[in-house]
C-alpha cells in the first residue's frame, strides 16, 4: 500500500499543474477543449493500463491508468490554454483571490468532514455490516448526483461571472440553470426512492434488502442538496462565500452531532440526520441570499420547493401503494408508475405550474454534454 500511495500521489502534482489552465479554458467557455482533454487522458490511461495488465503487472495497471490520465490531461490543458507560467510579480495584489480561495476551501473542508463523519460514526457504533448497507445506499445516491452536478456547474459559473454587470441576465441565467438541474435529478431520486422496494432486490440481490430504508431517506436529502446548488453558484460567482463558511461550520457541525445521536436509531437515524441537515442547509443558504443583490433568492426558493414537495409526495404515494399491495413485480411497476404520474400531474403541473420551467431544462443540455462526466471519488 505504501508504494501504491507514493506513486498515486503524483496525480496531485499533475492535477495541480493543470488546474490553472483548466480553469482558464472553463472561464473562456472552451468546453469542447475541456471535453477533448478528458477523452485524450482517458484513452491514454486505458492504453497504459491495458499494456501493463497484459504484461502481468496486476494492480499496477490501475495505478498506471490514474497517473497517465492526470499527466496527459494536464499537459493537454497547458497546450490548449496557450499560457505559460512566468515569474511571480510582487506588484500584483492577490489578497482578494486568497480570501476567495480560503472561502472555497473552508466550505469544501466542512463538506468533506460532514460527508465522511456519518460512515465513521456508523462503523464505530454499529459495526461493519450496517456500515456496508449505509455506504451502498449513499453510493447509489451520490454517484448520479456528482456526475450531473459537476458538468452543470462547469457550464453555469462562467456564464454567471460574465453576467455580473447585467442583473436581468444574471437572474435569468441562474433560474434557468437551477431548473435544468432540478427537474431531471429530483424526478430521478423520487422514482428511485418510490420504487426502491422493487428495484434494490433486483439490482443488488436479496442480501442488500437493508439498503432500502436508508436509501429512501437519503433521497430526500439528495433532493434538498440539488435544490441548494443554485445558492452555492450565486455565492461563488459573486465572491460572497465568507458568511457561507461560518454557516457551513455551524450547520454541518450540528449535522455531525445529529449523526451521533441518530445512530441510536440505526442507519435510518443517521440517514434522517443527513436529510434534515440537507434541508436546513438548502433553506438557510437560499434565504440568506437576500444579502446578495443580484441573486433572486425568493424565486430560487420557490422554484426549488415546487419539485421537492412534488417528488417527495410522489415517492411517498408509491411507497404506500407498494406497501399495501401484494402484486407481482410487473403489475406493481405499472400501477406504481401510474400512481407517481397522477400525483406528479396534480401537484407538479397543477398547483406549482412546473410546465414552463420544465421546458428550460433542455436549454443547456448540449453545453453540459460537451463538458463530459468526469468521475470523482466519493470519499467513501
Automatic annotation (TrEMBL):
Source taxon at top rank: Bacteria
Family note: Belongs to the polysaccharide synthase family.
Give the protein's recorded name. PST family polysaccharide transporter
State the compartments where it is located: Cell membrane
Q: Which UniProt keywords apply?
A: Cell membrane, Membrane, Transmembrane, Transmembrane helix
Q: One Pfam family of this protein, by short name?
A: Polysacc_synt_3
GO CC terms in record: plasma membrane
Q: Which InterPro entries does the UniProt record give?
A: Poly_Biosynth_Transport
How does the protein associate with the membrane? Answer: Multi-pass membrane protein
Q: Does the keyword Transit peptide apply?
A: no
According to its UniProt entry, this protein's organism is: Nocardioides ginsengisegetis
Tell me where the transmembrane regions lie: 39-60, 179-203, 215-236, 248-265, 271-288, 300-325, 331-352
PANTHER family in UniProt: LIPOPOLYSACCHARIDE BIOSYNTHESIS PROTEIN WZXC, PST FAMILY PREDICTED COLANIC ACID TRANSPORTER
Amino acid at each position: 500500500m505504501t508504494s501504491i500511495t507514493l506513486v498515486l500521489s503524483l496525480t496531485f502534482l499533475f492535477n495541480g499543474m493543470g488546474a490553472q489552465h483548466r480553469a482558464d479554458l472553463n472561464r473562456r467557455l472552451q468546453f469542447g477543449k475541456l471535453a477533448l482533454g478528458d477523452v485524450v487522458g482517458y484513452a491514454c490511461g486505458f492504453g497504459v493500463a491495458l499494456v501493463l495488465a497484459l504484461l502481468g503487472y496486476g494492480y499496477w495497471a490501475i495505478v498506471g491508468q490514474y497517473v497517465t490520465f492526470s499527466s496527459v490531461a494536464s499537459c493537454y490543458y497547458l497546450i490548449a490554454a496557450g499560457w505559460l507560467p512566468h515569474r511571480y510579480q510582487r506588484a500584483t495584489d492577490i489578497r482578494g483571490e486568497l480570501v476567495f480561495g480560503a472561502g472555497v476551501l473552508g466550505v469544501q473542508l466542512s463538506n468533506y468532514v460532514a460527508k465522511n463523519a456519518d460512515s465513521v460514526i456508523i462503523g464505530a457504533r454499529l459495526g461493519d455490516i450496517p456500515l456496508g448497507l449505509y455506504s451502498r445506499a449513499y453510493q447509489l445516491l451520490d454517484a448520479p448526483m456528482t456526475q450531473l452536478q459537476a458538468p452543470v456547474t462547469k457550464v453555469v459559473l462562467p456564464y454567471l461571472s460574465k453576467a455580473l454587470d447585467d442583473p436581468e441576465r444574471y437572474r435569468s441565467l441562474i433560474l434557468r440553470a437551477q431548473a435544468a438541474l432540478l427537474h431531471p435529478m429530483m424526478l430521478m431520486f423520487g422514482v428511485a426512492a418510490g420504487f426502491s422496494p422493487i428495484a434494490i432486490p433486483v439490482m443488488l440481490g436479496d442480501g442488500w434488502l437493508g439498503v432500502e430504508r436508508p436509501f429512501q431517506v437519503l433521497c430526500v436529502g439528495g433532493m434538498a442538496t440539488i435544490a441548494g446548488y443554485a445558492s452555492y453558484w450565486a455565492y461563488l460567482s459573486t465572491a460572497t462565500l465568507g458568511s457561507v463558511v461560518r454557516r457551513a461550520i455551524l450547520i454541518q457541525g450540528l449535522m455531525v452531532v445529529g449523526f451521533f445521536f441518530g445512530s441510536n436509531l440505526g442507519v435510518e437515524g443517521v440517514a434522517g440526520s443527513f436529510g434534515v441537515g440537507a434541508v436546513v442547509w438548502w433553506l438557510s443558504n437560499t434565504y440568506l441570499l437576500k444579502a446578495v443583490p443580484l441573486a433572486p433568492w425568493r424565486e430560487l426558493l420557490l422554484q426549488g420547493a415546487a419539485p421537492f414537495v412534488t417528488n417527495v409526495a410522489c415517492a411517498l404515494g408509491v411507497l404506500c401503494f407498494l406497501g399495501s399491495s401484494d402484486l407481482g413485480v410487473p403489475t406493481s411497476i405499472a400501477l406504481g408508475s401510474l400512481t407517481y404520474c397522477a400525483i406528479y400531474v396534480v401537484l407538479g403541473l397543477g398547483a406549482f405550474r412546473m410546465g414552463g420551467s420544465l421546458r428550460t431544462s433542455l436549454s443547456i443540455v448540449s453545453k453540459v454534454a460537451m463538458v463530459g462526466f468526469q468521475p470523482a471519488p466519493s470519499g467513501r
